[in-house]
Amino acid sequence: LALGPAGARLRALEADLQQVPLAALRAVAPGLPVEGLVTGRVTLAGSPGSVPLGLDIRLEVGAGTALMQGTLDLTGAVPRYDLTGRLVRVSLPAVLQPEVPPLFLTADYAVAGTGTDSRTATLHLSLSGTFSGWLAGPGDALQLQATLEGGLLALETLEAEAGPVQLVARGTWATGPVPAAGIRYTLAIADLESVAPYIRFLPPGIAGALRTSGEMAGTSDAPAFDGTLTAQDVTLAGWSVATIAAEYEYAATAPVPLLIVQASGGPVVTPGAGAYESAVLDLRMTRPTFTLDFRADRIGGGGAELAAEGTVVPEGPTDLILRTVALDLDQ
Q1: Can you tell me the distance from the alpha carbon of 223 to that of 179, in angstroms, rounded to the nearest whole number?
Q2: What are phi and psi of 190, to 5 degrees?
Q3: What is the pLDDT, as a whole number, of residue 177?
């Protein structure tokens, strides 16, 4: 603190943080999926409002260490920042929401931009790192290059590989109410049983492998997905399917989401109803009506068929009409 003719002026600041919630970052980055506590030191050099501040941060977070250096300029109408840093063996489950595999991340990163409101901020982020722990191998890594401008997130590169999971994504995503072109993605999971505890729509005990590719469009408040999926050697609760091929479309529309699934697979082995050469499913829920058609051909003749239609009313009863029910089961 310096004293002069104009009064006191801050020249430097050093602050010790003790068990500060990461959720506090949501004040400047709403929706940021972080949790946990941080402890460490923040050092600022310079006079806010007069010159850019020198920033030096060291935090203990997620059983690891986060380092950051650079400049923070508060002399204009919006803050400007140019920062680089390193994450050293940070536990992802300790800092991210929702639940993720017990992985550790070590990475170098850089972030530069102006403003903190996602609708008006300009930002460029790059991150290059490696994973360890869980089922990660020596070459498992994360590469990220992204730019935010005018409410649009341009994902230039997202490549991640950790154990049985591989993800590649590129494209444009809208952080505001106006949809963008969309983000193309490919997700491959070589071991569903290991990953199922961390993906809500996968039932416990499922095994096998899958690969899905498609496009994520819409907005952060109403995302939409359109893609294809293949799976191999899927087993669950005594059931097994050798191969599955599907096309899907989903949109988080109000008040009832849109969902279309067309899938086929086989051979199918059941725990008590025999084995089937093939099965076909066509499910369509299109605001608010839905139709369901299912057919399976049993090895040796016979099979099963189900056809239904109905309406789904938000906060009301669901109407269901069975058009066809035909079952030909083993003794």
Answers
A1: 9
A2: -85, -15
A3: 67
Reported as a single tens digit per residue, the pLDDT across 197-240 is: 999 888 999 999 999 999 998 877 788 999 999 999 999 999 99
In sequence order, which residues have a C-beta less than 8 Å from that of residue 69 and are 6 or more positions away? 55, 56, 57, 83, 84, 85
Q: What is the pTM of this model?
A: 0.86
Longest dimension (CA), the chain: 99
Q: Which residues contact 283 (CB under 8 A, 6 or more apart)?
A: 259, 260, 261, 262, 290, 291, 292, 293
Residue 175 in contact with residue 223, Cβ under 8 Å? Answer: no
Q: Rounded distance, CA 319 to CA 102, Å?
A: 43
DSSP 166-201: EEEEEEEEESSSS--SEEEEEEEES-HHHHGGG-TT
Give bridge partners of residue 16 from the DSSP assignment: 41
Q: If you average pLDDT over every residue of the chain, what do you get?
A: 86
- Contact, 111 vs 86, CB < 8 A? no
Contacts of residue 321, Cβ cutoff 8 Å, sequence gap at least 6: 308, 309, 310
